[in-house]
Design brief:
The structure holds 2 protein chains of 2 kinds. By secondary structure, chain A is α+β, with helices and mostly antiparallel strands. Chain A has a 6-stranded antiparallel β-barrel with strand order 3-12-15-14-13-16. Chain A is elongated. In chain B, helix 19 crosses helix 32. Chain B has 36 helices and 33 strands. By secondary structure, chain B is an alpha+beta fold. The radius of gyration of chain B is 37 Å and the shape is elongated. Chain B starts with a helix and ends with a helix. The chains are: A alpha+beta, B alpha+beta.
Chain lengths: 322, 1080
């Protein structure tokens, strides 16, 4: 009997142990399923590190990616403003030829488009007073733009001929309020016809002292040499006015500049290593930008395809937006 | 009931056999229509609504498109939640429905609501629902490309369609194509107008998607200066186009008894005709479109591009309809494409680059091969052990027939055949019941023969089979019920886990039920029919040997029960400890043979730049000798099912067959490592390597990826960003946190045009006048269509390409001033007022950065802070994080937080398992109790479960295979078999005790009686799995763990069961329970 009770105690323990083990085993499997889900996700996650500021790109790879470098140096940086305007006649060299005495036009010698010299006879008018014909002569050398008379007309107050010297013309540009402060006489202008065919260089001769009230524009006038007569009054033109031009000790190509982490940077080459270099920029035009701080003359910077470097440095943080 | 079934089956045995044959035939038929795929589709019931509005920024898209759509969707019955992303020019709202909602019902509802929402959307924004497909529906891809890119090496025939001597390409339609853009756009035309319409008609195809090339568009690109000079606006150009491209029907007239249909077609058919449109007249002189603008085939402002081996191509994708059979659909797409290829223009090719059939066939081929080899082995073993070829055949027949029956059920339940569902089928488990019945029948028959000393008569045979069945049917019924029970917890998963494991559990249960039905109908019937003549108890040499080997050990175990069970318990403890050393893996990765590589760049990368880098990447990859070809998609495809940003490229690397590699032994992982090294030399991208299907699969299960995701809901980005940042700080300081990060939402460069309203008013303009100019000039304005046969192409008015990138041109965009402003010309002033005002006068232009994407969930803006948890359990981490956040982060009014992420699923899953698993154990226990009528005996049999785990764990450890869900399923199967074995054994002993055999002897005798059945139940499944365990075919990696666990586990479990159960039975004097009951 004694032995038997001892046995049953043992049995109880063993039963309990087996039960516990069984439960534990299954529980573990269930748990592991859960953890497995968790761990499988871990792998996809890249560590978030603070961004590096340089990268190494082999020569071959750099070449394949179209990366080009250039030494930084001095350069001329010009700031321009683009204006749009029209060619008009130079009012200073425009002559409206009238008959001195009213009378009947007896003869007309020059027609529209003909070239005339000073003193060329344009027409003969028979004076009403003297009944004598007298010559109406061209006061300037130029082109007959308009002939408002014919034989038999009565010449009176209105001009008979319009003659203009078109060896130079005016280009009148509308300057809108935002640019008014920047534009002044004497500035260089590159004038381009709108289809881009003709280009001329001149300077602003003056900015008119009055503004057009409805558009608040002011006219900037440029006297444009017109030796071959290709600038014709009425044409629409574009003018790039150089409002500032300066020689700077360090200039980089504008295409080299990128923004990273809110800073303006260029990438400096050192062997295969390309490092981000924050710079302070000054004046800039489409091609060149002045560097005020951050880059010394002679340092090699990436001038073409600098985005690739930016992308390569930033790629650690690159991830799909979703 | 079961007895009656047995009786019926024996009585009508021929009928049963024929019926079974009929069912099997039906199963075969079902197999033909069973959707077969490589992996289960885990997409939820969802409808995507994509809207494009090219001229709107993310914020505007959100305000004008996303929000109205979301609002319209709210309250649809069955809608679970909505989430959305608003990108530049693109809005995607995803409506997720409950799993029981019919997709077609959901779509109809969405459609209805969208019709209402359309009124509040900006003009030109047309919301479209995504294809009726799923995330894994991309079953077939092809590239459209020139046979000789740039005409190099092609035979040029002047004047005939194809390449021309001057390097241009003459289309069969008679157009000459020059330059990359026109050539690429023709590829897209071929895809859109030749290939797509034909493939769309293939049954089971939900849609055909395209990416790459340029959609042909006719561009009218006016010069702003010319417009100004002529006093014209962009709007005038648009109107002129619209007014001169019309076709009207004018009914019919009757004349002389006939009726004439009046037709007036003023449609434009050629780009030349566009040029001839008169925009206006100036002083009686017509101003033609060609005078003020460049007219021609333009470069579409595309959202996605594609390339192959470093060349620009078009990639087409066939999307499969939900629930269709991927194998048959991709087969028919393949057949159709082969047909189409014949009629493509000269030198244009459509090459198949990805075909799901190949993978599925390979995978299913592996499964078939393993199953066949396994079945043959099983038959051999059965014959060896049973010594009766007919009985062996009958038992083995149960495997294919029950599988065919399973297929019928799978179709009924809408489960597709794939690695997960079919891969878990364990035919050892399936034949277990049949083996036990057959074995007992043979046992009885041979004994009866020995008893009578002659061949049995039919009646006697039937009687013996009936008796054998009845005797053993109880443990089988309970055993099968128990095995089914262990699969029940898998049915309780929800979400992705549910979609993955439920079909698997249902399939296994179906197979078990089928096998069970067969084992009490078909098997006895067949035995009655075929096992005639002399039945020799097949306990040949093999069994004798086994008995000789087993008996001494049994005696030892019986003599020292405590020691024996101590060793077993020790082993179990060791196994549990060893379990910790196993690696872990969610699902073993299916080797798709091909590689998918995602190349990611910084968010600001433009599509052109991204594609340029991608060309380099492709060139590097295609230099590998193992690579057959490589193609990639950059950005978003037309249908935008997966709206990838322009900075990401999906690269598909198609490998040559292993035999053609320079070093055939090189493992794929090694190749990937080499590739990774090479592509990292191409600057500018980050790479992730996966496989084509796996990539989609991961995207689907990922959602928000981290273990813990804190969602900040609010209105203002700055405030949300600040809050998210604060939460990130808090999380970083909590021990165990890793990879804490805030979703990247900014970084998209903006050219912001800020309007100066007073200035606009001063010039007598409307804001709309200004915006119109910007929108038309930059984004372009659709102004009608050009029809060429079936094909239709947009006409677009836009700024010339060269000017679009120039900021100073943008600043000076002319905005035409109204003619009369009521101001008298002042004669004193020498100049007139300008006709226009430059953009910069009425707006300021600034380069800034802004949100590249706005994510919303359930109608609110959302920002996500993600974190992973390492080295501590997620539950306590979340609790601590929540407390810390509550204390340290102050939420702005109206903002809210939601804690989600994987931990939520995990918690839900483990909470549920914590209830379900014990409940299951309880039910199993109940079943055991019902079967044995004794708590202590039930406990004894129950102890088989931990014993089952031992062998599996050690085998995994020895082979060095990680624990995965597949292995887990193996363990589940193991515990089922183990309990079944124990039950059969205890039952046998009990029967002897009931017959009055003394307890001591009953234990020995009972155990020995069942030795053969036990060994068979062990050896058969083990051997059946051997081909699977050794296989190297496609898909083998998914099934291997299961096979290995079952093989290892069963051997160990059987040995332990054979020793421990009799020992403990004896030790605890469990026979008393039987005798006591009889006394009562």
């Amino acid at each position: 009997m004694v032995r038997r009770s001892k046995d049953s105690v043992n049995r109880k323990y063993i039963t309990l142990a087996i039960l516990a083990l069984g439960g534990a085993g299954y529980w573990l499997i269930a748990q592991h399923h859960a953890q497995t889900v968790a761990t499988s996700q871990d792998k996809d996650e890249a560590e978030t590190k603070s961004q590096p500021d340089s990268t190494v790109i082999g020569q071959e790879a750099a070449q394949a990616a179209g990366i080009k470098v250039e030494p930084a140096g001095s350069g001329t940086v010009s700031e321009t403003v683009t204006l749009s305007g029209r060619i008009t006649l130079n009012q200073n060299t425009l002559a409206l030829v009238k008959a001195r005495f009213p009378g009947i036009v007896r003869e007309v010698r020059k027609g529209q488009g003909e070239l005339v010299d000073v003193g060329d006879v344009l027409a003969m008018v028979e004076s009403n007073d003297s009944l004598q014909p007298y010559a109406v002569k061209s006061p300037i050398t130029g082109v007959v733009l308009a002939r408002n008379t014919n034989i038999g007309d009565v010449a009176g107050e209105s001009p008979l001929f319009t003659i203009a010297d078109i060896s130079d013309v005016w280009a009148e540009f509308h300057v809108f309020p935002r640019d008014i402060d920047k534009i002044a006489g004497g500035q260089k202008v590159r004038v381009t016809s709108f289809e881009g065919g003709h280009v001329g260089a001149a300077t602003i001769s003056l900015v008119l002292p009055v503004a057009e009230s409805s558009s608040q524009t002011v006219i900037a006038r440029v006297t444009l040499p017109n030796p071959d007569g290709m600038w014709r009054a009425g044409m629409t033109v574009r003018g790039d006015v150089v409002i500032r031009e300066k020689q700077v000790p360090v200039a980089v190509r504008t295409s080299a500049i990128q923004t990273m982490e809110g800073k303006t940077v260029v990438f400096v080459q050192d062997g295969d290593r390309f490092a981000m270099r924050p710079i302070k920029t000054g004046t800039s035009d489409g091609q060149w930008t002045e560097v005020r701080e951050g880059l010394k003359p002679g340092e090699t910077y990436v001038s073409d395809n600098s985005f690739i470097i930016k992308a390569d440095i930033g790629k650690a943080g690159a991830e799909e937006g979703e | 009931m079961i007895q009656r079934t047995l009786g019926f089956s024996l009585h009508h045995r021929y009928l049963v056999a024929l019926l079974t044959a009929a069912v099997a035939a039906f199963g075969l038929y079902s197999l033909k229509s069973l959707p077969i795929d490589a992996v289960p589709d885990i997409t939820n019931v969802q409808v995507q609504i994509n809207t494009t509005a090219p001229a709107l920024s993310p914020t505007e898209i959100e305000k004008q498109v996303t929000f109205p759509v979301e609002t319209a969707l709210a309250g649809i019955p069955g809608l679970e939640n909505t989430r959305s992303i608003s990108r530049n020019g693109f809005s995607q709202v995803t409506a997720v429905f409950r799993d029981d909602v019919d997709i077609y019902f959901a779509r109809a509802q969405v459609n209805e609501r969208l019709a209402e929402a359309k009124e509040s959307l900006p003009a030109g924004a047309e919301p479209r629902m995504g294809a009726i497909s799923t995330g894994l529906g991309e079953i077939y891809m092809w590239t459209v490309h020139y046979g000789h890119p740039q005409g190099e090496g092609a035979e040029a025939r002047d004047g005939e369609p194809g390449w021309q001597p001057d390097g241009s390409y003459l289309t069969p339609e008679g157009e000459r194509l020059h330059g990359d853009v026109e050539l690429a756009s023709y590829l897209r035309t071929v895809q859109d107008w030749i290939i797509r319409p034909q493939l769309k008609g293939v049954a089971g195809v939900a849609g055909v998607d395209a990416i790459g090339g340029y959609k042909r568009e006719y561009h009218v690109q006016p010069y702003p200066q010319t417009l100004v000079a002529l006093g014209l606006s962009f709007k005038d150009v648009v109107e002129a186009l619209e007014n001169n491209n019309k076709s009207l029907g004018a009914g019919y007239i009757e004349k002389s008894g006939e009726s004439y249909v009046v037709r007036a077609d003023g449609r434009i058919g050629t780009p030349e005709a566009i040029g001839d449109i008169v925009v206006s007249t100036r002083g009686g002189v017509p101003v033609y479109m060609r005078d003020i603008a460049e007219v021609g085939i333009g470069k579409e402002l595309r959202t996605g591009s594609a390339s192959e081996n470093g060349q620009e191509v078009v990639v087409g994708t066939a999307l499969m309809l939900i629930g269709a059979n991927s194998r048959t659909v991709s087969e028919s797409v393949d057949a159709k494409l082969k047909e189409i290829v014949k009629s493509l223009p000269p030198d244009i090719e459509a090459k198949t680059v990805l075909n799901r059939t190949t993978l599925v066939n390979r995978t299913i081929g592996t499964v078939e091969k393993n199953l066949t080899e396994g079945a043959l082995l099983v038959i051999a073993v059965l014959f060896l052990v049973l010594g009766n070829i007919r009985a062996a055949m009958i038992t083995a027949l149960v495997i294919p027939i029950s599988m065919l029956m399973t297929f019928i059920g799978m179709i009924k339940f809408g489960i597709s055949g794939n690695l997960m569902s079919l891969g878990a089928l364990d035919f050892g488990l399936i034949v277990d019941g049949a083996i036990i019945i057959t074995e007992n029948c043979l046992h009885r028959l041979s004994h009866a023969q020995a008893h009578y000393g002659r061949v049995l008569s039919l009646k006697e045979r039937l009687h013996e089979v009936m008796a054998a069945g009845t005797e053993i049917v109880k443990p089988i019924v309970f055993g099968q019920a128990i095995i089914i029970m262990v699969y029940v917890p898998m049915l309780t998963f929800t979400g992705v886990e549910g979609k993955m494991f439920e079909p698997m559990a249902i399939t296994v249960i179906l197979a078990l039920v089928a096998a069970f039905v067969l084992s009490i109908t078909f098997v006895p019937a067949m035995i009655a029919i075929f096992v005639t003549g002399r039945v020799k108890e097949g306990e040949g040499a093999l069994m004798d040997k086994s008995k000789q080997l087993y008996l001494p050990w049994l005696e030892r175990a019986l003599a020292r029960p405590l020691f024996t069970s101590g060793i077993a318990a020790g082993l179990v403890v060791l196994a549990i400890a060893a379990f910790g050393f196993l690696g872990r893996e969610f699902i073993p990765t299916l080797d798709e043979k091909d590689i998918a590589m995602q190349a990611l760049r910084i968010p600001s990368t433009s599509l052109t730049q991204s594609q340029a880098i991608q060309f380099e990447v492709e060139k590097v990859v295609s230099q590998f000798k193992q690579v057959a070809f490589v193609f990639s998609k950059t950005g978003t495809a037309e249908m935008a099912a997966d709206p990838m940003p322009a900075n990401a490229s999906d690269t598909f690397i198609i490998l040559k067959p292993h035999e053609e590699w320079p070093d055939a032994k090189l493992p794929k992982s090694e190749l990937i490592k080499q590739m990774e090294e090479e592509v990292h030399k191409v600057p500018g991208s980050n790479y992730e390597f996966t496989q084509p299907i796996q990539m989609r699969f991961n995207e689907l299960i990922a959602g928000v990826r981290g273990d813990v995701a804190v969602k900040v809901y609010g209105d203002d980005f700055a405030a949300m960003g600040k809050t998210a940042g604060a939460i990130m700080q808090v999380l970083r300081n909590i021990p165990g946190s890793a990879d804490v990060k805030v979703e990247q939402t900014s970084g998209l460069p903006f050219l912001e045009i800020r309007l100066d309203r007073p200035a606009i008013a001063r010039y007598g303009l409307n804001v709309n006048d200004v915006l119109d100019v910007v929108a038309i000039a930059v984004g372009g304005r659709e102004s009608g269509l050009v029809f060429q046969g079936d094909r239709r192409f947009d006409i677009l008015v836009r700024l010339p390409v060269g000017l679009r990138g120039d900021l100073s041109v943008m600043e000076n965009l002319p905005i035409l001033l109204p003619e009369d402003m009521g101001v008298e010309e002042n004669p004193a002033l020498p100049h007139s007022r300008p006709r226009y005002v430059p953009l910069k006068e009425v707006a300021s232009l600034q380069l800034t950065e802004g949100p590249n994407q706005i994510s919303r969930e359930n109608g609110k803006r959302r920002m996500v802070v993600q974190a992973n948890v390492r080295g501590r359990d997620i539950g306590s981490f979340v609790a601590e994080a929540q407390a810390a956040t509550d204390a340290k982060v102050k939420l702005p009014a109206g903002y809210s937080l939601e804690w989600g992420g994987q931990f939520k699923n995990l918690k839900e899953a483990s909470d549920r398992l914590m209830v379900v698993v014990p409940a299951c154990f309880f039910f199993i226990f109940l079943l055991l109790f019902a079967a044995l009528d004794s708590i202590r005996q039930a406990l004894l049999v129950f102890s088989g479960i931990p014993l089952a785990v031992v062998g599996g764990v050690f085998t995994l450890l020895v082979i060095g295979m990680p624990f995965s869900i597949s292995a887990g399923v193996g363990f589940i199967a193991l515990s089922g078999i183990s309990v079944l074995n124990g039950l059969v054994m205890v039952n046998s002993i009990n029967q002897l005790v009931q017959e009055g055999v003394p307890a001591d002897q009953a234990v020995r005798q009972g155990t020995l009686n069942r030795l053969r059945a036990m060994i068979m139940a062990t050896v058969v499944p083990s051997l059946g799995y051997v081909p699977m365990a050794l296989s190297h075919g496609a898909g083998a990696e998914v099934q291997k763990p299961l096979a290995i666990v079952v093989i290892g586990g069963l051997i160990a479990a059987t040995i332990l069961t054979l020793l421990i159960i009799p020992a403990l039975y004896h030790f605890f004097s469990l026979a008393d329970e039987v005798t006591n009951k009889e006394e009562l």
